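Intended use. Records like the one below are meant for learning the mapping from a protein sequence to its folded structure. Do not use them to infer anything beyond what is encoded.
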Amino acid sequence: MMGLKSCHWNSPSTPINLLIIYPDQMRGQAMGFLGLEHVKTPHLDQFSSQSLVLDQAVSNYPICSPTRASFMTGQYPQNHGVWSNCNSLSSPFNYELPANAKCWSDVLSEKGYDTGYIGKWHLDNPRPPYIDVKNNQGHVKWNEWTPPERRHGFDFWYAYGTYDHHNRPMYWSNEASRDSFHFVDQWGPAHETDLAIDYLKNKGNKFRDDNKPFALMVSMNPPHMPYDLVPKKYKLLYDDVPLDSLLQFPNIPEEGTKWGDYYRKNIKNYYAMISGVDDQFGRIMATLKSQGLEKNTVVLFASDHGNCLGIHDEISKNNHYEESMRIPFLIRWPEYIQPRIDDLLISTPDFAPTLLGLMGFHEDIPPETDGTDYSNLFLTGDGERPDSQLFMSVNVGKEAFGARGVRTHRYTLMIQKDLDKKDQVELFDNHKDPFQLINVSEKEINIKKKLTKELEGWLVKTKDPWL
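Structure written out for the chain above:
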């Protein structure tokens, strides 16, 4: 449960760099080396052999803004206040990352790091007059500029709020005002990788101070929908792959149903996007090596949430199913972190304190952090382990309602609570029923009681109004 104790370790005397690659909506099962899905990820496959792979990592609230805020702050939504996605519907409730929140990037900036952020941010609410871009022209407004005082210690800034036109993305650069964004006629991940490579090469100290350690986060939007917005060369990777070979899971709805047809229409392009992200990741890793930065840089590859893509009749995320909750988590630090696969039940709020711990800043982890520093476990394999992971989903403006649950190594429990309705309960035995097809909540009464008590512990710890 939240707040496990962790042992500290003595970090090297030489400052450690940090590089985070963070694609959006990439489910944790969709990497070739795992052998679960027929997706082509040669660079991640190679990287996995050099990394600690946490194959049970989850997004606790599997949508963009709450999870991103949890990564940045090490807190659960109950405490960082981002209860839903940042958009015009949630703006009246002030669901955005507070300017005074202490993020891992703030800590590293204070410790003398040169910090950079490239790509999707999605932690600011849009406000009128709305930025004149496509995703602000419908009923719900999405995109917003992040002013310098809300960038949480990042020195180099090349980002946007959220914008899903992947083949012509838009950005605000460091000095750009709210109205001086620009568009780029290039696939977003490729453009962001070009910039990340320039940042790492840093010719003429243009991007950072070479005398300082750096921390760079590259937040790519794909494989987020729309799935057809991906370069042809990645689509061609799946041209000769029979569609039937990608329909091996029994929880994919049947052909002729709304969500069965949705899955069949999009799965190849979804995989193509993942292969494209993998290709860009490979370019960044090659540059890190060629610049002599590989040995002294912690590299993390993760995502904000997964993607059902129609499985369980769910369009994407924001649910308790494995395809939605599970995310990639691969971390490499040559000579310090031994490559292996570990089933640690890590949660998104654990990322920030663990990274700060790895970099030697145990004492600087903000006291309001909810997550656990697992740096010693990463390095030695020893340490306390949690028994479960929290799940949550909230309707805008109704924090005391919605869904809560827990996930263990074996079970997933979800309880949906709505006003004037009987609670909906789902319990899955993920060992016997890995595709979560059979709700055993009425059969396994004792298991349900035990997990409900586990959930109550989480809700007390997080001061959740749902309890």
